[in-house]
Amino acid sequence: xxxxxxxxxxxxxxxxxxxxxxxxxxxxxxxxxxxxxxxxxxxxxxxxxxxxxxxxxxxxxxxxxxxxxxxxxxxxxxxxxxxxxxxxxxxxxxxxxxxxxxxxxxxxxxxxxxxxxxxxxxxxxxxxxxxxxxxxxxxxxxxxxxxxxxxxxxxxxxxxxxxxxxxxxxxxxxxxxxxxxxxxxxxxxxxxxxxx
Length: 196
What we know:
By secondary structure, this protein is mostly helical. The chain has helices at residues 16-27, 33-46, 51-58, 62-75, 94-106, 117-124, 128-138, 156-168, 181-189.
């Protein structure tokens, strides 16, 4: 098959097992939308449909169809999986991370009622983007005094250090669970009938 006015496109031929796998992925309820879309692209291309027609049918860009077609031809089913993306090594260690959190929670700037991202960046020497990421990871919003509460837990900083690695360098397929201790204590003081 050849593209109109372009270079020839390699024929995409599926084996029975490959076709069965791709069709299963399209039918599955619990599959990532992106994976389902990739499988649809390959199935339509294998039916001999031109990339621009497949793109129009599926509502994607023609370059997207070409990308997944090339990856499938090169690596077959494996080519449809997401590649592991390299990331920059950490430039902030756990102690520095914890120090920003502790300073945010336990102090105020000399010239204001609360820390701003830029004022915290100024005193710590980190970029305002780094401070924003740290605050966002832990839901810190010192400017919202009506919802901002200082943890009275004496081990708070130690607990933060324990989980900081999950946010800065998460392992593949990590699952983080959280327990609301306040809800648990309310339940213990309420009647057992209302807690069931």
